[in-house]
Amino acid sequence: MNDNNAMNASSNDNEAKISHLEAENAVLKKELNRLSLVVEGTKAGYWDWDIQTGLVTTNSAWVEMIGYTAEELGQVTIATWENFSHPEDLREATARIESHFRGETDFYEAEVRMRHKSGHWIWILDRGKVFERDGEGKPLRMAGSHQDITARKRAEQKLREERNLFLEGPVTVFKWLNSEGYPTEYVSPNVIMLTGYPPSDFTSGIIGYTDIVHPDDLDRILHEITVFFANPECTSFEQEYRIIRKDGQIAWIYDFTTIIRDEKGQITSFEGYVLDNTIRKHSEQEVAYNRRFERLISTLANEFISASAEEIDAMIDKALQSIGEFVRADRSYIFQYYDNLKLMDNTHEWCAEGIEPQIEILQQLPTAEFEWSTKKITVGEVIIVPRVSELPDEAATEREILEQQDIQSLILIPLVSGNVPFGYIGFDAVREERQWPASSASILALAGGIIANALQRQQVEHLIQSELDLALKLSASNSFEETIQHCLQTAMEISEMDSGAVYLLDESENSLNLFHWVGLSEALLGEMTQFTHDTPEYQLTTSGKAVYSDENPAFSDKLKNSLMKEGLKCFAILPVFSKKRPVATFNIGSHTLDHVPEFALKALETVTSHVGAAIMQARHEERVGTVNRNLETLFESIDDMLFILAEDGSIIHANSATVSSLGYSLDELRTMNVLEVHPPELREQARQRVEAMLVGTETLCHIPLLMKSGETIPVETKITHGVWDGKPVLFGITRDVSERVKSQAALVESERKFRELTEYLPFPLFETNLQGVVNYINLSGMEFFDVSPEEVEHGISAFSFCWPENLELAVANQQKIFDPGYLPKGNEYTIVMRDGRRLPLLLYNTPIRKEGKFAGMRTTVVDLTELKQAEAAMRESALQKRVSEEFRSIINNIPGLVYHLSEDNRARLLSSGVQPWSQILIQANGIESLDDAIAFVHAEDRQLVADTFKKLRTNQTSTTIMFRIPLPGNEFKWVENRSTSVFSDDGCFTGIDGILFDVTDRVQAQEENQQLQANLQKTQRLETIGTLAGGIAHDFNNILSPILGYAEMGVVMMPEESKAHEFFKQIMLASERAQNLVSQILTFSRSEESESVVVNMQSIVEEAMKLLRPTIPSTISIQTRFRESGNVLADPTQLHQVIVNLCTNAFQAMTESGGEIAIELGEVAPDREFQKKHPKLKGERYMQLSVADTGHGMDATTLERVFEPFFTTKPVNKGTGLGLSVVHGIVTSLGGDITAESAPGNGSLCRVFLPVIDEEATKRQTDLAPVEKQDATRVLFVDDELAAAEVMRVMMGHLGFNIITLNSPIEALAAFRKDPEAFDLVITDLTMPEMTGIELARNLHELNPRLRMIMMTGYGKTIDNPASLSRYGLRKLLKKPVRLNKLAEAIREVMSGSAHL
Fold it and tell me: Where is the PAC domain positioned along the sequence (predicted)?
């Protein structure tokens, strides 16, 4: 029964539980439906992540967000999410998930970009929370949602862009106050883009409103503002003005300002904005510029239209000037291409004032050297180059050429005829760079078109004029040959080619025969004398078609080779026809041009088409008139006797001049032989002379002719071969030279009389040829110059007697004699006689003419020696009189000694001397000559004085020298000698005037200044080396920190009986020695900050001696001497180090030989000599510590470097070179100075000077006792050095602190932001790459003002004012490396609140 009751009760309980579970399940289903509706309503995707398996359950919205279906993705895992997430966002999201896993956050949230199926990124807000963990707290499952926030992120981005557009775009917003100087209250950040100044410069008052306004606009702007302010109804105003940016550039701005008034109507401030208006302003200026330019070009175009061909060149020059001045160019010019664009010439040029023309040298320039610009010109492009130095690399050659001509900017405008470019117009800026508007390119192109049309019109009219001139020449031609010459010359001129040949057609022989040529070699003419009808050349030239070298005509190989050897580069073959019959061919060629000019092709064909009839007419007329012209010209047109002889000498014919001169009739002469008109005794000689002329060995016959009356006529006869009536004859011409013979006889007689007259003149006279060689000299001249007739006959140059310094003047004066309108006058020269004497002469030169031409020069000589001596005596007398009568009192009062040295070295003192030294000098020395004066000069300075006076005798100049003069009593004076040489008007030396000044004080002052400069340079060098040493020590401290820290931990943690304990102990001891070395380096560089107290110097010295004595060998004795000793302000440890280092350095100099160290201490009062040696010491009293030794001493080189760190003369392992450098650093940091004196073999002496302070000495404090471990302190340690951070973690862990170490201040700041109360203490390094320890402390202090912090550094100098850092929570400053007990003590002080910076 009881069992049934129990079963019933149990069944009832089960039913109740089932009912309860069903009710709960219904509620859960209802909640699940409600949650599904919420998720569906928000369109959110949810996910459920099994962390152990990595599987993720998602809804459809999750996969649809990234553009997929559930079937496409399949089973989703955590890797699926990672693959679709952006790498940058994935790192941040993963870090937040891990933080949530560690329980640091209540939930996880991150914004992540995921890749959509279409390829773009969408923004997802990913949220989740761990809802299941195991017994150990490890997360097992996590669920969350995805929300598409792409639209929101885009809106945020757009908002940022709009804000940046307003604050960083072109609009600058401002607010300035209505007070003096209009101070700026606010200005938007983008003001730096407009002005170049940051906003802080304006708001701090460094830059004011009026400071940036252009000076030319400032008065106008301020006036307008005053007017606006005065109008109470004015609420805003607009202005345009220029400002000067920070970089010096000028910008135009538009300023819109709103006036802010208070309730009383008073102006309180101004608000508004400004815009950069430079581009619009420049556009307006550019438009105005182009309009003026267009008017100028229009005016020039009208003038070109009305200009004739002759006026075009002048108009082009005017246009170049007008356009050049308008565009402010320094040079404008035109280059024209030729030879198929291979060459170009500068044809027109205008230069501004002061610019050197270049047109003469800029000819025949290869366009290959200007490849870049030529390519652009040939396609019609206008080239504007504001800065030649910035031309592209492909224009490197042109850039180099332009820079050699100092061209900084240029414009090039193509010249085009039709579509063919033939040159360009250029404008250069030489003095400064020019910025030409790019929009003016079209106007410049228009100008180029106008000038190009003018040049083309000029060329066409020139060709037409050439044809007209040819027609006129042909109508006036007197011969067939002249007609051919005119035709060929015209063809060459219009084609601009340099050679040509004319071939005439011989129809009887069917050949082309060379008739006339220009500019061709004999070798080529020999190959081209004739072309027969069967040659390709004959067939080409008779075809009636012009042939050009570019067409590669089918010439024979022989002719091609001949043309190649001749160097002809191009040619044109132009057939000439008359009545459709070929009569000739004109061949035109060039040795320089590669192609026949394009413009000349049509012109050549036109000319040759017109000359056929002219050639035929000229040939006919030539044949008809040849005989008549020959007879008339030969026999009747001249006055000379003309005759024709048969080969046997019989006279065939003679002209009327022959008949009248000889007295025979023409018939009588025709019966005579030519020898019969010669004197009988000379006939054989005449026959021989005629035969000689006929064979070419003689040219003239001077045998007289015999008249019928029996008289003879002096004649000059010439005979040549000829043809008369088809028979060989002799042509003779005879000229009557009777008048010439008479003139020559008269000239000989006149020459004889002139020579007799000049030969006995009482003064020298000579004649020279054009080369200056004497060809005649009279007796007085031979005697005066001591030359013989033989020397004159062999040739002697008149310039050989000239003084070298007068030679150039003599040559120049000789050339002037031959100038038109020259009037003879005398010139003075100095000549050198053969015995070495120099004499002054006056030479009168006149030109010699023979047959109307200059043949030489005639010179009359006057000796001026006596005259010059008389003039010198008069000048000397006048000088003495002037000095004695007018300036005696002035000279006597000059603070110097005035003297005069005559040309014969006689010395005379012109002043009595007012200084004691000059009186002693005058009394002690009898000075009568230059040698006497040099004798009392200091022996070392005599050569300088002698050389100076020697220079003054040869050159008219002034000079200043200094030398010493010994005085009685072994003294000497420094004397400055200012002297001037005096020369006469004819260039002769007459003496030296001078004055002596006492400059002893100035010289001594200069020497003292040089000593001070040397001391200053030495101090500066040591300061530089100290800075370097400090930097090395700083880095070394960072290295020592982990070494010393681990060594100390090893000593603490290892048993004392273990070898490792002893090893670590030795490492620690070595590290401490290195730390002491670093301390010395920091002391030298003044980076090691020390605590200075008032100490007694004598007590420090005595204490140091107690420690030093046992370490110094017994062979070295120590002597101390103390005078009255005061107190100094210093670190006792540093003073101890100074004494130890000085004494150690002293005894090391005597280790081998032994000796004595003498130490002295006492007060000194600075005097003048002290201040010279120690210019930086300005105190009234100093303690002087002297340490002297009797060691081997130092030379000057070693002494100069004795205070440099790491400089030592000791062997390796015997010294670091830091001892004296550390002493120097300590002493100078205490406001003192140190000097060293030494010489080899005499020991060394070091003196230290420290300022005395009138205060009582401070007693030293004992060190604090070690502290106990603290377990509760939570410490964050930050140091970028990994080793330093790790050793600190070990050391502080040993002390029992809860420490977290980070190597990045950024990471430390982020960790702190998560929980500002998570740490009790922060220890940070000072110098870190991402931010300094001070910046980190400031940021942490803002997050938690109660936080305590400690700063660590290896270099004390980095912090200028450590006490000021306490406002950031910094309570202690430790220097690396730090010992364990020091670290614990510092933390105890900070945490107890007793530590202060």
Answer: 108-161, 237-289, 825-876, 959-1011
Lowest mean pLDDT among 256-270, 325-339, 651-665, 1095-1109: 1095-1109
Structure tokens at 758: 């000049």
CA 749/CA 744 separation, integer angstroms? 9
The SS3 call for residue 1312 is helix
Q: How many CB atoms lie within 10 A of CB 298?
A: 12
Backbone angles phi, psi at 708, to 5 degrees: -60, -30
Is the CB of residue 576 less than 8 Å from the CB of residue 582? yes
d(CA 427, CA 407): 10
Do residues 348 and 458 lie in contact, with contact meaning Cβ atoms separated by under 8 Å? no
Dihedrals φ, ψ of 251, to 5°?
-130, 145
CA 884, 885, 886, 888 torsion-angle sign: positive
Which among 270, 256, 257, 278 is positioned nearest to 195, based on CA atoms?
Answer: 278
Query: What sign for the dihedral angle of Cα 947, 949, 950, 951?
Result: positive
36-40, 1068-1072, 1278-1282: which is most confident: 1278-1282
**pLDDT tens-place string over residues 402-430:** 888 889 999 898 988 777 788 999 999 98
What sign results for the dihedral spanned by CA atoms 304, 308, 313, 318?
Answer: negative
Q: Give the model's confidence band at 197: pLDDT under 50 very low, under 70 low, under 90 confident, else very high.
A: very high
| First CA to last CA distance, the chain | 91
Beta bridge partners of 1277: 1301, 1323
**Could you tell me if 1325 and 1281 are in contact, meaning their C-beta atoms sit under 8 angstroms apart?**
yes
Confidence of residue 718 (pLDDT cuts 50, 70, 90): confident
- Is the pLDDT at 1205 greater than 70? The verdict is no
Pairing mode, strands 547-548 and 250-261: unpaired
* 184: nearest Cα among 211, 157, 223: 211
CA distances from 169 to 156, 173, 188, 194 (A): 18, 10, 10, 10
Confidence band, pLDDT 50/70/90 cuts, at residue 85:
very high
Query: Which 3-state string (H, E, C) describes 1213-1238?
Result: CCCCCCHHHHHHHHHHHCCCEEEEEE
Instruction: Count other Cβ atoms within 10 Å, centred on residue 1056.
Output: 8
DSSP 283-309: HHHHHHHHHHHHHHHHHHHHHHHH--H
